[in-house]
Design goal:
Elements lengths: L9 H11 L6 H13 L6 H17 L7 H13 L1 H14 L5 H13 L3 H11 L9 H13 L10 H14 L7 H13 L6
Helix pairs in contact: 1-3, 2-4, 3-5, 4-5, 5-7, 6-8, 7-8, 8-10
Length: 201
Amino acid sequence: LSLMSHPLCHPQLEGLCSFLQLSTCPEPLLVRFCSWLLALSPDLSYTSAAVLAEQLFLRRVLSLTQPPSRHLMAALTSFCSKYSHPFCRVLLAAVLQEPGEGAEQTKLMCELVEECLEPHSVQLVLSQVLEVPLSERLLPVLQAVLGRQVRAPPCPTEVLPPELLDLLVLTLCQQAPAFATSLGFAKLVTAVLTACQSQVS
């Protein structure tokens, strides 16, 4: 475990993860492993954290067909509470690119946004969502981001940074015809206008 805190190149760390069978280890062991990771000193580098996020969680999250177990949820929340930026870059980006409904993955994203991610990573999630075609399954994620930002805005007068708010409003305006009958879309627009009324003309 002490090797994890030392600079390892990408292939070395991936090889170590493969040797330890981290992607398929039992979930109770996964929780213990994440606890050990959080106790390492110095902290993991961004690259190492990104590799571990992929090795530990990507296969498990993408294969979810029911709510994650309490062990998997504990491991996810502990890891992303400290390494939320690389976690979002690797894992949430992959979830967003997945075709299909992905109901359990969407619920998980919402829960992590609402409860675990650091504020700057919540904004990263918003930018990631706005980079992909908007779909009905992503509307709850945008709602979760907005709700989190309302509770803890980046500054007293702004729920969202102006550049992100402009992109969100532009996306909603462009997508409005495609979501003309969507209750979720209507709720999202109302939430944006209510939460960001001082920023939206």
